[in-house]
Design goal:
The complex is a heterodimer of chains A (280) and B (293). With 280 residues, chain A is mainly α. Chain A contains 12 helices and 2 strands, in the order H-H-H-H-H-E-H-H-H-H-E-H-H-H. Chain A has one domain. Chain A is 74% helix and 1% strand. In chain A, helix 1 packs across helix 11, helix 2 packs across helix 9 and helix 6 packs across helix 7. Chain B has one domain. In chain B, helix 1 packs parallel to helix 5. Chain B starts with a helix and ends in a 14-residue tail after the last helix. Classes of the chains: A mainly alpha (280), B mainly alpha (293). The interface between A and B is large, with 50 and 43 residues.
Chain lengths: 280, 293
């Protein structure tokens, strides 16, 4: 490897890791938003994945190839429990139930001290998530979503986003698609959480709260949801931005919040407004 | 012991109900889950704190002025964020997302300007005397909270059912276009509803800040979990439901903490919320129709 590349990787390793993981999180947000649903539980699912992964590695010493799928399954199970009833109701119910999930989990992590380390969190998690793994998964997911987006399923998803009732009348199985998307997005967020835990070596209860949920939403809103690439671009911009704007560090969350407001009001298609092309 | 627990539950539940009133009112009328509501709560508490510290204001002055300030903030925030979306009939989810982004920005701005240290009301702001009868202790602040919660529910109920403004608000809640065609000034009614909900949020902020005596910018966020639970259990937009659900939640939490474990207390609200969604999504007193597709 060229020397400058080595230097570059060494200096920015944390940032590069974070970019990949945030890309995965942005895709997990895309997965529900592409159907016109709003889940604010991505941070909670990520936290579940992170805690599951970290505990399996630290307490049971399971191998990493086994830890990763399990840390995707646990959030999927929780998504089934809270998604089941809410998806039959109007969209706000899912949003409320998922925000509430994040809040309750945070308190539980803090209170279940013997297992989760309480407010101090868990540290000393071995660094097993290599850059290759993170970016390999990211590329795989983008390609997967791209293929799905161009298929019949993608058409159904876009139809639901534009007009749910019309899509239902056309024979799209609404509850199945909604639940499927929520579970897939929970799995993806859990996977990202587990990867984050195994690359930072530390996790704490306050990392998966309201701010993180809003930040993940802002990735997808800034990038747009026309193509699977768009939310990832949003994630890259919003993750790299604080590095560029160091002096504004205290106001980082203010800026994230404002980006959401401005994006919803004035830029409903995001900064990458293209749509997937399909064969006629 | 049980009776003291029940009284504590009633007080805690009244704080939850107080917090949820304005929240559920906004949804019931404007069809927006307005997450900036938690910010009005913090604003009310901070304005009252500032008045008490700088001018030695008593609770009888600080409470109304704090609520008033929160009401005005609510009108401005609602006008800036939601007018445009209301014009284009953008629906529930974009409105929810806008308020979500805004509340993060507002909290963070407040935290950056004021700091996140916990602040307290000056000593003796409210007398620390406690009444005691039949072995049950109730402090002055606690009575104030329960009293205010019930009075506000009654006033709100009368306002909605027996005044001209109430009629306009109910018409707007029913159908905006029809209300406009009937000659109702929809924009003014929207402002009135925002103001009312901010007022309620601010009052809740002052009283709850006083009860826990811990005021900091994110205090509204901490109440949100209970707020969500209460408005879902009581039924979205249902004012009586919010009162009953709030008290129910408070009593259950206190009993859980007393007889099971204090850790389990935190999960009570969320558990009932999920159960409500599974078995009775319309809430305690809700009518059958929920889905407005």
């Amino acid at each position: 490897m060229a020397e400058w590349l080595d230097d570059f990787l060494f200096t920015y390793e944390t940032l590069i890791h974070a970019l990949g993981i945030h890309g995965l999180l942005a895709l997990s947000m895309y997965c529900v938003m592409a159907l016109g649903q709003l889940s604010l539980g991505q941070a909670a699912f990520m936290g579940l994945g992170a805690y599951t992964g970290a505990l399996l590695t630290l307490k049971l010493g399971l191998p990493f190839w086994l830890v990763l799928p399990i840390s995707a399954l646990v959030p999927a199970l929780v998504a089934l429990i809270i998604g089941g009833p809410t998806l039959r109701l109007s969209g706000v119910y899912l949003a409320i139930a998922t925000i509430a999930l994040g809040e309750v989990l945070r308190v539980l992590y803090i209170n279940a001290e013997s297992l989760t380390g309480g407010a101090l969190g868990l540290s000393g998690i071995p660094q097993k998530a290599s850059l290759g793994l993170v970016y390999g998964l990211l590329a795989l997911c983008i390609a997967g979503f791209w293929a799905i987006g161009r298929s019949k399923i993608g058409r159904a998803m876009e139809a639901m986003r534009e007009d749910e009732m019309a899509a239902g009348v056309m024979g799209v199985n609404l509850p199945l698609y909604k639940l499927g998307a929520l579970v897939a997005s929970a799995m993806l967020a859990g996977l990202a959480g587990s990867l984050a835990a195994h690359s930072n070596s530390f996790i704490g209860p306050n990392e998966y709260g309201f701010e993180t949920a809003v930040t993940i939403l802002s990735f997808a809103l800034l990038g747009g949801i026309g193509t699977p690439i768009a939310p990832v671009v949003g994630a890259v911009v919003l993750t790299a931005l604080p590095e560029v704007l160091r002096p504004l560090a205290d106001f980082r969350l203010v800026i994230n919040g404002l980006i959401i407001v401005l994006a919803v009001l004035f830029l409903p298609r995001g900064i990458v407004p293209f749509r997937l092309r399909r064969a006629p | 012991m049980l009776s003291q627990q029940l009284v504590n539950g009633l007080v805690l539940g009244s704080t939850y109900a107080l917090f949820a009133l304005g929240f559920t009112l906004i949804f019931g009328v404007l069809r927006v889950i307005n997450l900036t509501y938690g910010f009005y709560f913090s604003v009310g508490a901070f304005v009252a704190l500032w008045l008490a510290r700088s001018f030695g204001a008593s609770i009888w002055i600080a409470l109304p002025l704090g609520s008033l300030a929160a009401g005005l903030v609510a009108v401005v925030v609602d006008g800036v964020l939601l007018t445009r979306l209301r014009r284009t009939k953008a629906g529930e989810l974009p409105s929810l997302m806008v308020t979500l982004g805004a509340v993060l920005a507002l909290y963070s701005l407040m935290a950056a300007l004021i700091g996140t240290d916990i602040q307290r009301f000056p000593f003796g702001f409210v007398g620390s005397t406690a009444l005691e009868f039949a072995g049950i202790r109730v402090s002055l602040v606690q009575m104030l909270i329960v009293g205010t919660a019930f009075v506000l529910v009654a006033v709100l109920f009368l306002l909605l059912q027996h005044t001209r403004l109430g009629l306009m608000i109910r018409a707007l809640a029913e159908n905006e276009d029809a209300a406009r065609l009937m000659g109702i000034n929809v924009d003014a009614t929207v402002v009135a509803v925002s103001f009312l909900s901010g007022l309620l949020g601010g009052a809740a902020g002052v009283l709850i800040g006083l009860n826990f005596n811990a005021i900091q910018p994110f205090m509204g966020e901490a109440m949100m979990l209970r707020g969500f639970a209460v408005i879902i259990i009581g039924g979205l937009g249902d004012i009586r439901g919010a009162l009953v659900a709030g008290i129910l939640l408070g009593v259950l939490e206190v009993l859980t903490a007393g007889y099971l474990s204090s850790n389990a207390k935190e999960a009570v609200g969320f558990t009932i919320l999920v159960l409500t969604l599974w078995f009775r999504p319309v809430g305690l007193f809700g009518r059958a129709q929920v889905k407005r597709a």
